[in-house]
Structures are given as structure tokens and as C-alpha cells.
Amino acid sequence: MEVPCVRVRPQDGEATRSALAARDLVDGDHEITVEEGWLYVPVTEASVAANAGYDVVAHDVAARRGQLMPADVLGEEPSYERLGDIAIVDEEDPDRARAVADAIVESDLPVESVLNRASKVKGELRVRDWEVLAGDTRTVHREYGYEYVLDLATVYFSPRLATERHRVARQVDAGERAFDMFAGVGPFVIPFAGRGATCVGTDLNGAAIEFLLENAERNGVADRVTAVARDVREVATDYEAWADRLVMNLPHSADAFLDTAVALAGDDCVVHYYDIQHDEDPFGPGERAIRDAAGSSYEVRVENRHVVRSYAPHEENVCLDVRLTR
Questions:
Q1: 249: nearest Cα among 240, 237, 257, 241
Q2: Residue 71: which H helix or E strand, with range?
Q3: Burial 20-39, CB ≥16 within 10 A → b, else e
Q4: Closest CA to 189 of 161, 163, 159, 168
Q5: Which pLDDT score, from 0 to 100, does residue 123 have?
Q6: Domains and CATH numbers, the chain
Q7: Over the stretch 41-53, which tens digit does the pLDDT of each residue have?
Q8: Counting CB atoms within 10 angstroms of each CB, which of 39, 184, 230, 282 has the fewest?
Q9: How much is the pTM?
């Protein structure tokens, strides 16, 4: 059957496969194939691979033989999400949750733990409760060549935003000063620093900041990363007019921090402002809030209006890339 594949010359095959595997993009359900002087590596996310610069084509490759999948055990295809070596399910029926977990564990998937969502994201620290069906809540997640140690019991992390984080990171130049106001375990800070930026990340969650520091060491960028376990509003006076780039990924309430963002912004600063709004006007409320906060101090230019994903019926998770020029 035809599936999305990265096409390379055979002599570049192993290096390409390794690079794709580091990003968790290799489709293990299908065989790597050589045909007419080209090697085809099946990938799980065609758009992510293409954005990373690979030649992605549809090609007819065989299903991988001998691999036991959860559907083979369960008799149907279960719904689950992968984060590192954790499989995440969302099952209300405890018997169904146990059956899905058992099928995943029995399969050949490289999974050590299975977690069932037991609550929505809640509280200031944006964590949720989990039912541990196998293993534990700690893992190492790999994304675009970087590794993140995290524990879902104590921090928030969404693998679904990998493409968006990469989109923003690609805009960063060496020598920039970047500030992530709600940094978590560092999925913006670490790749920014990897591109040569000097970075500051703040977060109310002390556990997330500990992981951010560990991840900075793990990825070889600790010398360019400062992490602070405090409310960004309490830290802003130490970095007044400092930032060339700001990340505001707190989409339900980022507008409450716009005065702080303006205080942090340097003379020429790009702000990545995340919001969740009704699909009738997903960008307008955020843009108006930014202009109000900037007042007469800055010229405001919206450089990009970007839909990240659908959040709920008639609600969009969006990002405004806005340049503030004093």
C-alpha cells in the first residue's frame, strides 16, 4: 500500500533513518524499501518530515511482517497517543482501559508504560491525574533531535505541539535573547538555545524547572539557559527591555500577562502569542489585546496569523507572531 516515505539515495539511508528515528518519525509498521536507485523510509508524519527538509513522497511499501500490533491482540484498532515510551489512552470504562493497556503491553510497540487520563488539565500548574495501567509516569521524549526528560504526574507536556514548536524554533537566530514566560520542561527554550540564543525560562511549577535544567544539560545547552521557578511577573523587573523574542504559550490566559510581555520586550521584539478563540474570529481578540497593551510605546506589526490546531468544536488554538518595535 502507498504510505508517506522519505526518499533518499541508498548511501544516505542509515544516516537518514537514524535522524528520523531521533525525531520519532520512522513508521515501524512498514518496511524500508530500495527500488530503482532510491531508498524509501516510511514515516508517521509526512508534514513534519517535509518541514524538516526531507523529500517526502507516497510510495507502495510492504507492511512489516512479524510485528504484533495492539489491534492484533484486541481485535480492533484502539486509540492511543505516544509520548516517549508511554502510551496514553482515554477510556472511561475501566474494563476497556485494562483491555487496551494489556493489548499495548503484549504488542511489539516500544512501550514501557500505559496511562489512562483520569482528569482534565487543572490548576495553576496545568497537570492532570493519571491512572497508571502499566509502568510509571516518567519518560524521555524525543523531538526534532532534542530529548526531554519529564514526569507526567508533575508537569504538563503535549507532544501534539511538536510541529508548532519546531515552526517557531526555526525562526530563531544565534545571538538572540529569548524569554519563555511559561517554559515548562523546556520544549521552546532548549531548541532556541540549540540555535545559539541566550534563553530565560520561567514557570510556577518547580518540578518543571528542575526538568528544564536537567534537559538543558542533557542537550548540551546549559551555558545558554537560565531557568527560574517563579511567576514571570515577579521576575520581569530583572529583565526589563531585555528580550528579542518572547513566547507566551498559555492560551487560556496569556492576555493577563501582556503588560509583563511589554515590559520584557526590547526595542525590536517578536512575540509568539497563543490564544484559544471562537472560529468566527480566532485572531481578533488577541491582536486587539496586544495593541492595547503596547499602547503608544511600540509599533505593532502582525507578521503571521497561524492556526495551530482545532481545540474544540468551533474553537481554534492559534498563534500570533507579532513584532513590537519601539
A1: 257
A2: helix 70-74
A3: beebbbbbeebebeeeeebb
A4: 168
A5: 85
A6: 2-60 (3.30.70.2580), 70-136 (3.30.300.110), 160-325 (3.40.50.150)
A7: 999 998 889 988 9
A8: 230
A9: 0.80
